[in-house]
């Protein structure tokens, strides 16, 4: 059913009002020439019974006496027959099938150009653009006239380039970049010329044609290079992927690859003007060369803050153990290690959870060895390895890479921090072919822990010299308890040794680890230290302790 009257033309309404948009130089909506004005408005053309619009106009100082311009169901129309150099006011009304009109739209005023107006200036846009060779850009010219009116004169001016070897421009103002350089683009009309500068640059391109190959577990670094375009450049990988362990940052591929194989990927560079270029590249990662046996050892001061220990030797796949902590600080706690790589590792102390990160300070010996099974020159067997496990309530069995001739001493430690809770390792059933291992959180906790990386070094009981260091590897009888036990070295040493020690049995099930004190040239005191999260007693039954002593060459 038709409404009683068409909808009112009121600028305040959001959708269904007639809104007179423009009468002059709204480029996407209307343009104007002397004696003719093109108008545009907004209205819902699906309104019931709408048949069209009537456009009214008057002199700025007069009233609407001229017959309206009849317009069909469209949103723009020209008004012709106007006087040059005259100020007019325009408005529109919607009309229904019976001829009834809505209320008036908003008014818009416009002064038609004077027939005698001449151009006084020409503005060329865009101003001072930059193009890559082979690309195009449309220029526009706007004339300012002597009566202060303005007009789009893009199609009336004469366009020119100061060097067609750098850039050409056609009669409609479309410029084409030919070669790197700078030109002046001009637009001339009636003796008036407007100008702007056009810079032409080489197209953006990636100039890196290939990348060096890498080696697993060895540091890698390779830059990507580009030319052309406008810096700064932004780099990304748009397809494929880098080898695991490598990342692309600020135009350089860096990191430590972890996986052998070839990775194919597409690199993209983007310049300041959002131009892009791509290049298909690949990186091959080779297996880590078999390294000769090497080790590094030391004793580090530690506390509850992470500390970086840098290696002094080159390692490809280092295995690190650090155990036990001395007894300078009586608070029970554990050693945590993380971020082990070819250059070093991070280490700190951690109090058991019930102590709420109470600070613990002390000293701890550490041993670094290249991963693998090794036979020393005197036939002594050594193996350094890693296992990933979340075994806590139960032991898991782990095999050596190669069987030992006799059961070795096994030193273990957690070398990742995938869960914040304090945790230790416990060992039992050490044999010539392997050992059983589990982790323990404090007794008050449910024995569930995230998967962690456990490092181990297994060393055949023996003594001798390796890489300029004397070593003694042995185990005690089942005798070490929660009371300090004096461990006498098999042979006295000339300098204080680095001590590595670990329980080889789990005869007492409460969470515990070793602590030491009073290290001398002939012996050291060790004990089993339990935590007290569930109860205050710390009695611990007898355990077998395995140990490694390392001293300067003897």
How would you sum up this structure, described in words?
By secondary structure, the chain is mainly β. It is elongated, with a radius of gyration of 43 Å. Mean pLDDT is 89; it is low at 1-16 and 22-34.
Rg: 43 Å
Kindly report the average pLDDT value: 89
Q: Low-confidence spans: pLDDT under 50, at least 5 residues? A: 1-16, 22-34
The coarse overall form would be elongated
- Strand order, biggest sheet? 28-33-30-45-46-43
* Beta-strand content estimate: over 45%
Summing up helix and strand content along with how strands pair, one would put the structural category as mainly beta
Q: What does the main sheet amount to?
A: 6 strands, mixed
Number of helices: 0
Fraction of helical residues: under 10%
What distance lies between the first and last C-alpha atoms, to the nearest angstrom? 111 Å
Quantity of strands, as a count? 47
Number of individual domains = 5
Task: Tell me the layout of helices and strands.
Elements: E1 19-22, E2 32-33, E3 36-42, E4 50-59, E5 69-71, E6 76-79, E7 87-96, E8 108-111, E9 119-125, E10 130-132, E11 136-138, E12 140-145, E13 150-152, E14 158-161, E15 167-169, E16 174-177, E17 181-189, E18 192-201, E19 205-206, E20 214-215, E21 220-223, E22 226-227, E23 234-240, E24 246-249, E25 252-255, E26 261-270, E27 276-286, E28 295-302, E29 307-310, E30 318-326, E31 333-341, E32 344-351, E33 362-370, E34 372-375, E35 381-389, E36 396-399, E37 409-414, E38 424-428, E39 434-440, E40 452-459, E41 462-466, E42 469-475, E43 485-488, E44 498-503, E45 512-517, E46 523-530, E47 545-552
Parallel strand pairs: 10-18, 20-27, 30-45
Antiparallel strand pairs: 1-3, 2-3, 3-6, 4-5, 4-7, 7-8, 9-12, 11-16, 12-13, 14-17, 15-16, 17-18, 19-22, 21-25, 23-26, 24-25, 26-27, 28-33, 29-32, 30-33, 31-32, 34-35, 35-40, 36-39, 37-40, 38-39, 41-42, 42-47, 43-46, 44-47, 45-46
């Amino acid at each position: 059913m038709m409404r009683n009257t068409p909808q009112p033309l009121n600028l305040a309404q959001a959708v269904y009002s007639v809104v007179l948009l423009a009468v002059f130089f709204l480029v996407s909506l209307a343009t104007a020439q002397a004696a003719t004005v093109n108008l545009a408005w907004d209205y819902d053309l699906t309104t019931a019974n709408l048949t069209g619009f009537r456009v009214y106009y008057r002199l700025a100082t007069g009233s609407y006496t001229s017959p309206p311009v009849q317009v069909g169901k469209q949103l723009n129309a020209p008004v012709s027959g106007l006087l040059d150099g005259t100020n007019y006011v325009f408005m529109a009304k919607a009309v229904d099938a019976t001829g009834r009109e809505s209320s008036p739209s908003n008014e818009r005023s416009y002064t038609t150009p004077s027939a005698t107006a001449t151009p006084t200036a020409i503005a060329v846009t865009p101003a001072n653009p930059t193009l890559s060779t082979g690309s195009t850009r449309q220029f526009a010219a706007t004339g300012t006239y002597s009566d202060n009116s303005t007009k789009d004169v893009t199609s009336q001016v004469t366009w020119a380039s100061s060097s067609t070897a750098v850039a050409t421009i056609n009669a409609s103002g479309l410029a084409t970049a030919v070669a790197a350089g700078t030109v002046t683009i001009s637009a001339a009309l009636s003796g008036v010329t407007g100008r702007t500068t056009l810079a032409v640059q080489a197209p953006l391109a990636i100039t890196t044609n290939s990348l060096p190959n890498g080696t697993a577990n060895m540091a890698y670094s390779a830059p990507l290079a580009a030319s052309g375009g406008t810096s700064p450049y932004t780099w990304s990988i748009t397809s494929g992927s880098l080898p695991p362990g490598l990342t692309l940052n600020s135009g350089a591929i860096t990191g430590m690859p972890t996986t052998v194989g070839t990775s194919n990927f597409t690199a993209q560079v983007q310049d300041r003007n959002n131009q892009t270029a791509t290049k298909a590249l690949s990186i091959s990662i080779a297996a880590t060369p078999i390294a000769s046996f090497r080790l590094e050892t030391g004793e580090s001061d530690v506390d509850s803050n992470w500390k970086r220990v840098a290696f002094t030797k080159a390692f490809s796949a280092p295995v690190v153990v650090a155990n036990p902590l001395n007894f300078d600080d009586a608070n029970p706690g554990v050693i945590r290690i993380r971020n082990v790589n070819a250059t070093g590792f991070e280490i700190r102390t951690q109090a058991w959870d019930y102590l709420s990160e109470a600070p613990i300070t002390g000293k701890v010996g550490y041993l670094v060895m290249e991963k693998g099974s090794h036979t020393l020159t005197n036939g002594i067997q050594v193996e350094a390895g890693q296992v990933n496990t979340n075994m806590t309530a139960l032991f898991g069995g782990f095999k050596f890479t190669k069987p030992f001739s006799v059961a070795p001493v096994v030193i273990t430690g957690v070398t990742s921090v995938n869960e914040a809770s304090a945790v230790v390792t416990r060992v039992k059933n050490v044999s010539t072919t392997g050992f059983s291992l589990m982790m323990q959180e404090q007794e008050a906790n449910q024995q569930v822990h995230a998967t962690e990386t456990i490092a181990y070094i297994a060393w055949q009981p023996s003594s001798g010299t390796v890489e300029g260091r004397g070593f003694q590897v042995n185990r005690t009888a089942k005798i070490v308890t929660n009371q300090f036990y004096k461990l006498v070295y098999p042979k006295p040493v000339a300098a204080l040794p680095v001590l590595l020690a670990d329980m080889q049995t789990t005869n007492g099930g409460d969470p515990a680890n070793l602590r030491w004190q009073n290290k001398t040239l002939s012996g050291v005191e060790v004990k089993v230290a339990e935590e007290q999260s569930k109860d205050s007693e710390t009695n611990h039954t007898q355990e077998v302790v395995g140990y490694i002593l390392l001293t300067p060459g003897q």
